[in-house]
Amino acid sequence: MATPGRQFNAAVTRFWSVAAPLYDLPFLQRWVYRPAQDEVLSELRAHGAQRIADIACGTGILASRIAAELHPDQVFGVDMSDGMLEQAKARSARVSWLKGPAEWLPFDDESLDAVVTTSAFHFFDQPAAMREFHRVLAPGGMAAVATISPPPAKLLQRLSPESSAVAHSPSPAAMRRLFTDAGFRITSQRRVDRPLWTRAVWDLITVGVKD
């Protein structure tokens, strides 16, 4: 029997497979998604990671920016949605696009230097995802998670009766616990720097290192 988390993941995947074209609307990308992506890029640049995976990569905007702006050895974009991945593949041939959930990543143990995710963490089984991030990172590897608050839109909550329990945005203290419980040492946590008129999108970036 499918678990509530898997049922919700399937519902979200179906939604984004249909809604993928809307995700790329310029005003959404510029004002909602780009500020957090800019901060993740800054963390990656400072860390010097060469094998990087963007989890729940959507249409591939951040993963493509990582490849184009940082020039690491390898960039992977991972998503569960065929619609999202179809658009991502058309965006960049420099990124390896893979299908899979955050809770079961398609990577060997200690095979990556950095794992990042933006604007999707509230959909994950969060403890399981953090354990996976820790598993796939080499010692010294970095995880950067940007989460959007407030809770998901009512439309997404209607996709599954269990969604309100699964889709949630942890508080800063809860995010720190998720990182430390998974084995990370937290190096930074802060609110994403946004233009004043978009601060209703309250997002937090938390960064940790695997010792």
Describe the structure.
With 211 residues, the chain is an alpha/beta fold. The protein has eight helices and seven strands, in the order H-H-E-H-E-H-E-E-H-E-H-H-H-E-E. It has helices spanning 4-23, 26-47, 61-70, 82-91, 126-136, 154-157, 163-166, 172-181; strands spanning 51-55, 74-79, 96-99, 112-118, 137-149, 184-191, 202-210. It has a seven-stranded mixed β-sheet, sandwiched between helices. The longest helix is centred in the N-terminal third of the chain and has 22 residues, at 26-47. It is globular and about 40 Å long. Mean pLDDT is 82; it is low at 1-9, 11-20, 151-157 and 159-167.
First-last Cα distance: 37 Å
Gyration radius (Cα, Å) is 16 Å
- Please bin the fraction of helical residues: 40-55%
Beta strand %: 15-25%
Describe the largest sheet.
7 strands, mixed
Task: Briefly note the structural class of the backbone.
Answer: alpha/beta
Shape call? globular
**Major sheet: order of its strands?**
3-2-1-4-5-7-6
Indicate the mean pLDDT: 82
**Number of E-state strands:** 7
Tally of helical runs? 8
Uncertain residue ranges: 1-9, 11-20, 151-157, 159-167
Strand/helix succession: HHEHEHEEHEHHHEE
List the helices and strands and how they pair.
Layout: H1 4-23, H2 26-47, E1 51-55, H3 61-70, E2 74-79, H4 82-91, E3 96-99, E4 112-118, H5 126-136, E5 137-149, H6 154-157, H7 163-166, H8 172-181, E6 184-191, E7 202-210
Parallel strand pairs: 1-2, 1-4, 2-3, 4-5
Antiparallel strand pairs: 5-7, 6-7
Helix pairs in contact: 1-4, 2-3
